[in-house]
Amino acid sequence: MTRLLSLLGGIAGFYRGNTAGIVGSTIVALILAMCLAAPALTGFDPDKRVARGHQPPSAEHVMGTTRAGKDVWSQALYGGRVSLMVAFAAATVTSIIALAVGVSSGYFGGRTDEIMMAVTNVMLVFPQLPLLIILAAFLGNVGPLVIALILGLTSWPWGARVMRSQTLALRNKEFITAAEIMGEAKWRIIVVEIMPNLVSLAAGMFVGTALYAIGAQAGLEFLGLGDPTVTSWGTMLYWAQSSAAFFVGAWWDFIVPGSFIALVGGGLALINISIDQISNPKLKTGSYLRTWRRLNAEINAKR
Amino acid sequence: MAFILRRLVFYCVAIFVAITFNFVMPRLMPGDPVDAMFAAAGGKLPPETLAAYKEMLGFVDAPLWQQYLQYLQSVVTLDLGPSIMLFPTPVTEVLSNTLPWTVFLAGIATILSIVIGCFIGLYASYNRGGFVDRVMPVFWQFIASMPQAVTALMIFFVFALTLRWFPLGFGFDPDLDPGLRPGFLANVAYHAVLPLVTLMLSMIATWVFTMRNAMVNVLGEDYIAMAKAKGLSSRRIMTHYAARNAILPVVTAVSMALGFAVAGQVFIETVFNYPGIGQLIIKSVAARDYPLMQACFLLIVICVLMANFVADILYVWLDPRLRK
C-alpha cells in the first residue's frame, strides 16, 4: 500500500509544473479513451456502407463519409484501436528486446558484449524505412499483427545501445559490487539491482518507439503495403488516396485520420520530451531543472 | 588510420548483410517469385527473358551455395538486368535517372535545415531559460513527430491543391526540355519547394537539439569563463569561442543526416509525385518488379553507409584524439 502511494506520489511529482508532459499525456489519454469508448460515441458500423459516398460532414455523419459510404468518425474511432494497439505492441516488443540485449551485453561484457554489439551496430546502420518496405513487400499485404512484429523486431538497436551504456555505468557502482560479494545470483542482480535503475530510460524508449510505430504503420499502410481490409488510421489514408478524395474535394477523408495520427504523435512526443528533459542531465534548464531538483529533494527526504 | 580501416571493414560487412538479405527474402516466399513476377507483368515479357531472370537472380537448379555465388556475381558486376515495370530499360539506367533527384532534395534540405536549426539552437542556448529556449525545441519536436506521410498530405492539400501556389507533382514541367538553362532550373526549383519544405520540417528539430546541447556543454567550460573575465562581448564569445567548438558534433552528424534523408523520402516523393528513388521503390513494389526493388534497396543502403563513412572520416579529421 505504501509502495503504491509512493508510486502515485512519484507520478504526481513528475507532472507538477511539467506543462509539456501534462498536455501530451492528456491528448494521448483522451484519444485512447475515445477509441475504447467507440461504441458509445458512434452508432455506425465502421465497415458497413451507411450512406452515399463522399458526403460532407453533417449532423448525422459528423465527419462525413468515405467514397464507399462508410462513416469516417466511426472508422477513425474503431481504426484508432488497431493503430494504437500496433503502436503499443511494437513498443513492448522493442523494449523487451532492447532491455534484454542492452543489459546482458553491458553486464556480462567480454565476448557476449562484442557479438551482441556487432549485430546491434549492423542493424543500426541500416535505413529502417526501406528495410520495412522490402519486408512488407515480400510478406505481402501484412496485417496489423505482422506490422507490429516487424516494427518491434527491427527498431530495438538504438534502445539496446542506450541501455548498454547505462548498464555499464551502473555495473561499477558499490551496490552492485556489494550484491556480487554477497553472492547474489546473476539474474537477480540484473532484475532486482540493475533494472529498477533503468525505468525512466525504458519509459522514454517505450514512448519513443510507440511514436515511431504510429508513423511507420500509418506510412506502410498509406503506401498500400498493409492489409487494406482492416480499418486503421493508415488504411483510411490509403483508401482516401486511392479514391482520389483530395481531387474530388472530400478533404475530410484525409484530414480526419491525418489529424488523429498527428495528435497522437505530437502527444507522445511531448511526453517523450518531458521524460528526456528530466532524466537527461544535459538538457536541464528553466522549469525542468526546478522539477528535477524538487524530485531529487523528495527522494532524499524519504531516505 | 586503424579506426578508419576498422570502420571500412564494418561497412563492407553491412553491405554483405544487405546483399544476403536480398538473396534470402525471395527464397522465403511461398512459390516461385520469378513466376509470380511474370504473372503480374501479364505476358508482356518474352518467355526467354524468364530464364535469363532466373539465372540472374540465382534461381537455378543448383545447390543453395551455388545460387548464392551466382547472385553475388551478378550484383558485383552490376548485371542487374532489365526492369520489368519499365521493360526493357536496364535497372541500372532507371536508377541513375532517379537517384540525382533524391540526392538533390536530400542535400538541399539537409543544408537548409542545418542552417535554420543551428541558428535556433544557438539563439536558444544564448538566452537559456528564455522564451525561445523553452518553446522552440518543443515546438520543432512536435512538428517533427508528425509522420511524414501526414505532413506531406496536409501541405500538398493546402498549398498545391487548394491555394494552387505550387505544382501538383513531377520534378519539372513535362513540356520543358531538360537542360542547364535559367528557365528550366527555375522550374525545377519551383517544383522542389513543397517536397523540400516537408523534408525540412522533419529535420530541423534534430539540429535545434544537437546545437543547443552542444552549446550548453561548451558554455560550461573554463575558457568561456576566461573569455568573459577578459571582458569580451558576449556575441564574440558566442561566435568565436563557443560555437566553433560546439559545431563539432553538428559537422559529424551532417553526412549521417544526409544518408537518412535519402532513405526517408519515400512518403514525400510519393505524395508529391517526385521522380526520385523513394517513389521508384514504391512503384516497383506495386508492380512486383523484384530486380528493380532490390536494386533500389541496395542503392539506398549503400548511400547511407557511404554517408556514415564520410562522417567517420570527418570525425577523425576534426577530433585529434581519435588519430592514434
State the main characteristics:
heterodimer; A: 303 residues; mainly alpha; 14 helices; B: 324 residues; 0% strand
Secondary-structure blueprint:
The complex is a heterodimer of chains A (303) and B (324).
Chain A lengths: L1 H14 L3 H18 L1 H4 L30 H37 L1 H16 L2 H12 L4 H11 L2 H15 L2 H8 L4 H9 L4 H24 L10 H10 L9 H28 L6 H17 L1
Helix pairs in contact in A: 2-4, 2-13, 4-5, 4-7, 4-8, 4-11, 4-13, 5-8, 6-7, 7-11, 9-10, 11-12, 11-13, 12-13, 13-14
Chain B lengths: L1 H27 L4 H9 L5 H10 L7 H13 L14 H36 L4 H15 L2 H15 L19 H38 L2 H8 L4 H30 L2 H6 L5 H10 L3 H29 L6
Helix pairs in contact in B: 1-13, 5-6, 5-8, 5-10, 5-13, 6-8, 7-8, 8-10, 9-10, 10-13, 12-13
Question: How does this structure look, described?
Answer:
The complex is a heterodimer of chains A (303) and B (324). With 303 residues, chain A is mostly helical. Helix content of chain A is 74%, strand content 0%. Chain A has helices at 2-15, 19-36, 38-41, 72-108, 110-125, 128-139, 144-154, 157-171, 174-181, 186-194, 199-222, 233-242, 252-279, 286-302. In chain A, 45% of the residues are buried. Chain B has 324 residues and is an all-alpha fold. Chain B is built from 13 helices and no strands. The mean pLDDT of chain B is 81. Chain A: The chain crosses the membrane at residues 20-44, 84-109, 129-154, 198-220, 254-275. Chain A: Pfam families: BPD_transp_1. Chain A: InterPro entries: BP-dependent_transpt_permease, MetI-like, MetI-like_sf. Chain A: It is a multi-pass membrane protein. Chain A: It is found in: Cell membrane.
